[in-house]
Each structure stands twice: as C-alpha cells, then as structure tokens.
Amino acid sequence: MLYKLWRVSSQMPSKKDKAAMDLFVVLVLCLSCLLLLALRRQSSGRRKLPPGPIPLPIIGNILQIDAKNISKSFSTFSKVYGPVFTVYFGTRPIVVLYGYEAVKEALIDLGDKFSGRGIFPVSERTNQGLGIIFSNGKRWKEIRRFSLMTLRNFGMGKRSIEDRVQEEARNLVEELRKTKGSSCDPTFILSCAPCNVICSIIFQNRFDYKDQNFLTLIERFNKNFKILSSPWIYVCNNFPILLDYFPGIHNKLFKNVALTKNYVLEKAKEHQESLAANNPRDFIDCFLIKMEQEKHNPQTEFTFENLVCTVADVFVAGTETTSTTLRYGLLLLLKHPEVTAKIQEEIDRVIGRHRIPSMQDRSLMPYTDAVMHEIQRYIDLVPTSLPHAVTCDTKFRNYLIPKGTMVLASLSSVLHDDKTFSNPEMFDPGHFLDKSGNFKKNEYFMPFSTGKRICVGEGLARMELFIFLTAILQNFNLKSLIDPKTLNTAKTGNGIFSIPPSYQICFIPV
C-alpha cells in the first residue's frame, strides 16, 4: 500500500512543472488564435480582391514565388488565375496586372486611380516618402510637375540637351580610344557618359572621367543597382524586420544612399551661397529659388530634405538605367555581328564618319531605330515596373481593390507578348520593322512603364541610347575574345532590375 502511494506521488508533476505546462498551453492557444485571426482576415480580404494562390499565414505566397525570376512565377499564376490576380508578399496583398490589356486598362484608362506609388520597406527606409520616385499624393504631383518643367527649361527634348549628349558622346569616344583595342569591361565607361549628362543638368558641370568624386559616385550607383536586383532585397521587402535586426547587403545599400545624399546636400549648400535668383544655373538652383518663393507656406513640399531626395532620384535613375541599357545593348550587338554590320552600313549612308550623330538622323535610320527599340524590349530592364498603389477604393473588372493596395504591372508580359512579337525570347530587330524595312511603332513597347507614373526621363534616355550607341559604332568595330555565338546574354539579376552578365569587349578603331 505504501509502495503504491509512493509511486503515485512520484509521478505527479511538481508545481514548477505544472506552471510551465500551463504557460505552454496558454502560448499554444494564443498562437492558434492569432493564426485563426490571420487566416480569417486574409480570407475576408481575398473575397474582394482578384483570385490568386492561397497564401500561408505570415509568409503569404513567398514559397510559391521564385525570388530569382519573379516574372516566370507571375506567368505561371496568370495561366491559372487570369490576367489580374492577387499574391501575398508576407501578409500584404499585391494585385498583379499581367498582359497588355490589363496594364493599359489600369495604368492608362484608369490612370488617376492607379497613380499611387506602392511602398516597399527598403525604399521607405531610404526615401521616407520624399523625392519624385517614391512620393505620393500632393507631394508627388508638385515635385513631378516642377521636375518636368525644370528639365524642359534646361533643354530636355530641346536642342540644348542634345548638345550636352553629343558633347558627352565625343568624350565617350575619346575615352574608348584610350583602350587601344585591348579588352575591357565596359561597365565603368558606359556609366560615366549618362551620369555626366545628368551632372551637367543638376550640378551645371560635367566631371573628368578620372575625377575621384565621380569615380566614387559611379561605384556606389553600380553596387546599389546590383543590390536592388538581388533576391535578398525581395526577402527584406516581405519581412521588414530583417532590415533592423539582421546583417546583409541591405546595410551597404543604406550606407551608399546616405553617402550620396550627403554629397548632394554639400553641393546644394554650395549653390545656396552663390545663388543668383535671376540666373539659375541648373536644377539645384531652380529648386532653391522655388524654396525661397514658398518659404512662408507651412505646407510647402519644397524643403531641403525634398531637394536632396529629388536630386538623388534624378541622379541615380538618370545614370544607372541608361548605362545598364547601354551595357546590355553592346553585349547583344557583340553576340549578333550581323546586326552591328547593318547598323554601320546605315551610319555610313546617312551620317558618314566626320560628324557626331543627331536625333534628326534617327528618322532616316529605320534599322538602327528598330535595334534600339529591340534592345529595350529584349532586356526588359524593370520586369514588374516599380510598385503602384490605388489612390481610392477601385472597382476593376468586377473586383474591389481597397485604397492603398499595392499593384504590380508585369512589363515582361507586355514586352514579351508572343501574339505581338513573333519570337519574344529572341533578339530580333524585325519586331519593329514592316515588310518594306520601315520602322514600325508598337503600342506594346513600354519599357519606361506607362500612364501617370511613366519615367520622367524617358525622352532623355532614348536620346542617349541612340546617340551614344550610334557614335560608338560609327568609330569602332566590336570584337569579342570568344566566339560571339557562345556569349551568354542571360540576366544575372531579375529582382527589381535586370542586370546583364559581366563580359569583355574590344573597341577596334574603324
């Protein structure tokens, strides 16, 4: 009898063990409730939104999306759920527009409602909603209007900006001559040219290609572009807690952005000391004059903080997007020498060898124009565009998209549409030529996005692409160290931006 009592008492949990068990049960119940609430919330939200793959609690559809090729994942989803579907990045729903009709209907036909900028945590950390790229509402409208007007006043789309681009094309050709036909990685040189055009607009002056400040800026831009194209940034945007508590390349991105902003701030202060209100020299002067005009307006958007962010936006966007397109374009021309030869024939016939190309030449060079368009179509620089957001509760194709919901427009699905482009995965200038060899416009061509949020620098970028590449082919033959047929043209990054692989090229003087 005593032995049985001893066994029962020895098997009974102590008070400490019982308390631990009770705590464990409470935690399990709390987590279960939170899980049920999250499921219920997602379920109720999904009833209003377009259909899509069922998300898991907390992580959403992250396991169903290939971070290295988001466009491919979206293509797969579109075959199941149609041209408008919803995916969850973490707990956040994102409506995806897939195909020309859906993109056009939203961004053009309903442009005002889809004109908001969706905020990724990484961009929110670097911009705080300032500047021109990631701002919203009244701030965005005022800064965009001011920027467009100022860039036009300083020649964007006019003769004066073309003079700047032509001047830089001459400098670019001379810099390439210094390679003396030896092999080189063209990344740095091709970044310098568009960056100097932007510098002449923002800071009044261009830089020498050996200037140390210039070299540092270019290096930061190149690194940031690669970082933004990495799968890690995709993960960080899904789980913002990583930005604060985990090491990673995002910290290098934040550091580079801060250093660039400090550089812009120093330049702005220098401008302020020598400012002549009646004779603005550049973009910064115009912004400072606007700040002075609105200094008594407590609601003004023209502040030093916004000046720095806006200039940094114009600076970075006007440099890296164009230089990456140039670099990718040269790789494609290196791989397709027959295309390069046809461009050079057209250059000889229309321009000759003794003057710099101009935009007037483009209308007389349909094949070259087609190649420039095909480069931008093929490389698909910004596959999902930058994130949009609806500015109000929006009814779209019998769905209700709540105000503030983020929207991604798949530009890949438009630029690589197989019904419009006969061989969308092939590099073929014929996509933009008719049967007579004349240039053929195509409404599916939207590498700069479309609608209210179309790239502010579209005109400048297209001018630079034509003049720079034409000037290079006017003065050099392109040579690869390996058989052109074996050159790899596959993207090395397919996050926010598409990055070409590294390669070596020889510029042989004609």
From TrEMBL:
Question: Is Heme one of the keywords UniProt gives this record?
Answer: yes
Does the keyword field hold Oxidoreductase?
Answer: yes
From the Swiss-Prot or TrEMBL record, state where the protein is found.
Endoplasmic reticulum membrane; Microsome membrane
**Which Gene Ontology MF annotations are present?**
heme binding; iron ion binding; oxidoreductase activity, acting on paired donors, with incorporation or reduction of molecular oxygen, reduced flavin or flavoprotein as one donor, and incorporation of one atom of oxygen
Q: Which InterPro entries match?
A: Cyt_P450, Cyt_P450_CS, Cyt_P450_E_grp-I, Cyt_P450_E_grp-I_CYP2B-like, Cyt_P450_sf, Cytochrome_P450_fam2
Record key words, sorted: Endoplasmic reticulum, Heme, Iron, Membrane, Metal-binding, Microsome, Monooxygenase, Oxidoreductase
Q: How does it sit in the membrane?
A: Peripheral membrane protein
Enzyme class (EC, first level): oxidoreductase
Which cofactors go with this protein? heme
Q: Which reaction does it catalyse?
A: an organic molecule + reduced [NADPH--hemoprotein reductase] + O2 = an alcohol + oxidized [NADPH--hemoprotein reductase] + H2O + H(+)
E.C. no: 1.14.14.1
One record GO biological process: organic acid metabolic process
User: What Pfam families has UniProt attached to this entry?
Assistant: p450 (PF00067)
PROSITE patterns associated with the record:
CYTOCHROME_P450
Protein family membership: Belongs to the cytochrome P450 family.
The entry's protein name is: Cytochrome P450
